[in-house]
Write a structure and sequence with these properties.
Layout: H1 2-26, E1 28-34, H2 37-54, E2 57-63, H3 65-74, E3 80-85, H4 90-98, E4 102-104, E5 114-120, H5 121-126, H6 133-136, E6 144-145, E7 148-156, H7 162-173, E8 181-185, H8 189-202, E9 208-212, H9 215-219, E10 222-224, H10 233-240, E11 258-263, H11 264-269, H12 272-279, H13 284-296, H14 301-311, H15 313-316, H16 322-331
Parallel strand pairs: 1-2, 7-8
Antiparallel strand pairs: 3-11, 4-11, 5-9, 5-10, 6-7
Helix pairs in contact: 2-14, 2-16, 13-14
Length: 332
Amino acid sequence: MKKLLATTCLAAGLLGLAGTASAAECGDVTIANMNWQSAEVLANVDKIILSEGYGCNADLVVGDTVPTITSMIEKGEPDVAPEGWVDLLPDVVNRGLKEGKLVGAAVALSDGAVQGWWVPKYIVDANPDIKTIDDVLKHKDLFPDPEDASKGAIFNGPQGWGGTVVTTQLYKAYGAEAAGFTLVDTGSAAGLDGSIAKAYERKQGWVGYYWAPTALLGKYEMVKLEHGVPGDAAEWKRCNTVADCPDPKKNDWPKDKVQTLVTKAFADRAGPAMDYLNKRAWTNDTVNKLMAWMTDNQASGEEGAKHFLQESPDIWTQWVSPEVAEKIKASL
């Protein structure tokens, strides 16, 4: 009996040492918690999975795109930026990658961050010929201006947004004024959201600028219009994004690459945890619906992460081994 007890204790001790070694291998990890909903919930998903699945000592730290990525390159911290909008500072990111201070992990948003002009799905269902911006401009009667029903309306974002500048330039490029449309300044993010909600609840026509991932698109099913032309990066830079450029051309709105970035130091010691960060990706549709649930329930990033892990194992178990998946399920 003593021999059996000793053997059991030895086995337990070895398992404990193995667990300690696993945690030590991953060690402390700091995760940037950006100040918008999609990034906040992803950071919390990473914290739970790295802590419960891989034995990391994971902590969230306050972050934002430019200061976080700059700090990762210059100071080696934080260790992980789950939702890095790399197209916002391509030179900085490329320098970090080239100098071996950053490692690019999974493209966090697998279908890219999307901006453009959208219409409610019920409009497209009733009018299947509407697929492009030019198609919309042939149907001003379906998108009446709230101030003048004889005209159509295109709803824009507030002043100061990059998307507002581009929408103004595309309004010119596609000849929307000549087609009988006015460009409506919604004044604020709340005003833009409100215009969509009002139209949707009344099943009225609406067309204008929006983006994904967002909670609103998880609540209201919208369809992004095609631009009808291939993307021209040089033209986009020359005129589509420049407010005072007088001669914008039709152009496709490029998708933003949203990638997980990791410091080289953490990547080198992360072990199996790095396999997870190289696989972990979700779609706009998944994020939109999750954020809609969070908004409706006034849920925090941690609550949203737990809801996702509980309700969507078909998605996240693809990112980890069966053994790790069981550890995470047991922790919820």
